[in-house]
Amino acid sequence: MILNLEAMDLLEAENGERALLIAQLVTLDLIIADVNMPRLDGVDLVRRLRSSPDPRLRELPVVLLTADKSEEAQRRGLEAGATAFAHKPILPAELSAIVKKIGGRVSSKPPSSGTGRGSR
């Protein structure tokens, strides 16, 4: 919802396996993933992307989100190769700033007439 307000096109995945499949099939600018996802958690998603033979996936920026405020959780995510790590609940301005900072590859587009769900 936050990024829809920024007029960015978004794709949603209900679990980590689906996110990996989407990343393999569609050229993405950025992934924002929860550390705790069903089927493939965010840390393992990052590991799979970073070990991919496809350089596009190995270099894809990934922001991990979690409610776990422990240093261990952040260390695991960053060691796996996450580009950035943020804690939930995240303020809209904070998420927007992270995306913009990672940003050279992330482009804003004019708002579409749709909801943004499932669009690219």
Structure, explained:
With 120 residues, this protein is α/β, with parallel strands linked by helices. 40% of the residues lie in helices and 11% in strands. It has a three-stranded parallel β-sheet with strand order 1-2-3, sandwiched between helices. The protein has six helices and three strands; from the N terminus they run ααβααβαβα. The protein has a single domain, classed as 3-Layer(aba) Sandwich (Rossmann fold). The two termini are 15 Å apart. The longest helix has 11 residues, at 92-102.
N-to-C SSE string, H for helix and E for strand: HHEHHEHEH
Through-space gap between termini: 15 Å
CATH topology: Rossmann fold
CATH superfamily: Response regulator
State Rg: 14 Å
List keywords for this structure.
120 residues; alpha/beta; Rossmann fold
